[in-house]
Amino acid sequence: MQPATRNYVLLFCGAFLFHLAGTWLLPLVDRDEPRFAEASREMIERGDYIVPYFNNRYRFDKPPLTYWAQVASYRLFGENPFAARFPTAFAAALVAVVTFAWGRRLNLERAGWWAAIFFTLCLQSFMHGKAAVADMWLVLFVTLAHWAGYEILRDRHGGSWRSAALRPQDTRGWWWLFYLALALGFLAKGPIAWVPLGTVALFRAARPVPDFARRFLFVRGMILVLFLVGLWGVPALIRTHGEFFAIGIGRHVVGRSFGDMQGHGSKSLLIALGSLPFYFVTVFLSFAPWSVKLPWLVRRLWRKRDALDLYLILGTGLVFVIFSLVRTKLPHYTLPVFPLLSLLLARQWLAAGVTIQRLRRWTIPTAAAWLAVALIVFPLLAPYSLAAALFKKSEPYLQPEMDFGSYDFQEPSIVWVFRSRVRGWSFRNQRNGHETGTLQPDQVHDFLASKGPHFVILPSNVADRLYPTLPSGYRKFTIHGIDFAAGEWIDLTLILKNT
Predict the structure, then answer these.
(1) Bond from prior residue into 289 cis (ω within 30 degrees of 0)
(2) Alpha-carbon distance 373 to 376, whole Å?
(3) Are 22 and 130 in contact (CB under 8 A)?
(4) Within 13 Å, how many C-alpha atoms sit on residue 155's CB side?
């Protein structure tokens, strides 16, 4: 095997196994993992790969690429947490390879190698490289688009950029990659994937580039992007009568920008203004342990920077500014530019004379610590997963035709976990054609007493109040565990009727 090929294989396999470690040991947590995993399962059940559903209702939150990847994984490994997370680990490993390839293309092979390691081992990548969500696919395509945009521009400048005159055929492949990555990024997580367009525009404003419009052919390129997105988007819009756009873009993009969403963000303008520095503070946790070098990096770049540095700075800064202005804030929103930040840090750190031995003293303990979390801490937490623990206790008594409901515990993990055994749906209240919430305490008796087998999940104190003595044919299962989404310990009870 050639040395270059060997390095790519070693990097991909190492990153892939690192991200896979422990994915089978912890049930799906948070709110988004079960939603993605269950929507992918329902795609298979329906044979419908255009419009996602969750709990037998439209799910407009995200485009379909992540669901498609999970469906393929289910075909190989079955419907389980490992299979749901497998595509994410694969995408995260590809990000590491792309980062290395970008550095190698610039004759910065060592910087590319260490940038890939920095990205792989930072805290946010450790967390989202194992999560059954869309973020790593977005990171992959945003990184590819940034790289391709850089290649289209880079003949204009000296230093590590080639000095030969640009010819149209030199960048034809990069042009296709740029717009294909924008299209696939949109299919992963929506319009935020188009941020590389802003990066190249900002770079053009900072450093004049001759024939800028001819290089990118923006109109032609965006027609290509819209055509590729439309192959899925037009059928989805037709079948949902435009709701996919109205809710997916209107509520989940525009609404997230100007208001709170699912408990994140604030409706207060004063609080929103006060949270503007949010990402410039949380990056020190998200990018840990490498974030301790960020103040040093800023000082170094303030004194001297070349065109490559500027490009990476503009791409990183643009995302930080965009999400600082968006009211709904979560630390992982800036993850798409961590490969750029990693390449920027690795290049400057190596140029400053850091030794390989010192870098190893950073990376080996960091990798060991994250692996210990994945292989030791995850199994310790798993028994306290509420939905999984209730399922384990009640599984022998579950029947395929069961419907179920819950009160005061609305986590999507209930649907994901229990629908591996039952084929009913979680009850949702309806009023004037709109959902108004889950079961209410005064509905529990009638719900369980209705024809056929049912079960409900309730806070234990409510269950004890409603059923101080269980009727004949009823069973009760109680657990104490962690609500991972809310970050609190609670007691839950499942009451089941089998007839």
Answers:
(1) yes
(2) 5
(3) yes
(4) 13
